[in-house]
Amino acid sequence: xxxxxxxxxxxxxxxxxxxxxxxxxxxxxxxxxxxxxxxxxxxxxxxxxxxxxxxxxxxxxxxxxxxxxxxxxxxxxxxxxxxxxxxxxxxxxxxxxxxxxxxxxxxxxxxxxxxxxxxxxxxxxxxxxxxxxxxxxxxxxxxxxxxxxxxxxxxxxxxxxxxxxxxxxxxxxxxxxxxxxxxxxxxxxxxxxxxxxxxxxxxxxxxxxxxxxxxxxxxxxxxxxxxxxxxxxxxxxxxxxxxxxxxxxxxxxxxxxxxxxxxxxxxxxxxxxxxxxxxxxxxxxxxxxxxxxxxxxxxxxxxxxxxxxxxxxxxxxxxxxxxxxxxxxxxxxxxxxx
Length: 338
Hints:
Number of strands: 7
Radius of gyration: 26 Å
Oligomer: single chain
Structural class: alpha+beta
Number of helices: 10
Order of helices and strands: HHHHHHEHHHEEEEEEH
Strand order of the largest sheet: 1-7-6-5-4-3-2
Helix content: 40-55%
Largest sheet: 7 strands, antiparallel
């Protein structure tokens, strides 16, 4: 029993050491000195901290056979404990934690593998100490160097298409202005569960170039959309600017704020394409700016969220347009019968 308890004490110690390192990294990269360079969105935090966590967790774990992969679960335990701690103490918003979670899990396992490779066939405690010290110090040594480089801009396009059993006239009517949308109209979605506000409605000041749409979402989120392309029954396109005066600071975490330094939605376009008698293919696409040091990974999440939001709006438009077309058909039939 003593051996069993001692082994588990070692495991707990290794996980706590990994957690402590991750928390230290979180506070270090969130300070004012590094916030201007990206802070928690720097590679030093997003890549080197979880890699170091995996190495540290493995270093303080009991010796295991070289072919044992159990160390992965210890590093994952440390990551999950870090994410849970950050959530409980409100260190980060749930959206950010969900986004970095998979990245941390993978890189923590990579850190454990690298530590094993670098210390394989080396029984010297000094060598292992030097290796783990290198993993622990690297994020903080790399941060001043990384801070000298600006994050690259990545301009991304997300497109969604839906086939609607309604003529272009009915569809056009339902896209230039979008009457209030209920939660039942939208249906459930993962983006709701992770904290993104639902779309509510879109108004239009007047029809034509220069018209201003106000697209509102829940929790005070509003976008001002100025029409610069107006082709009746064919296309409407507009620039998008978030109305920061109406968006409460608690709606988004600073790292995912629309219109912030890391992410912005720039344009939106609806295109209507005839798809046969009484049918319309509606295309909605948007352009976003992503400015992080890990754009390929962050882009997976922003593309998913934007695609889900756009897809839900298209489904609402389709449902309303088809209902409107059905009413028009019924009225026409009734008129013919009389």
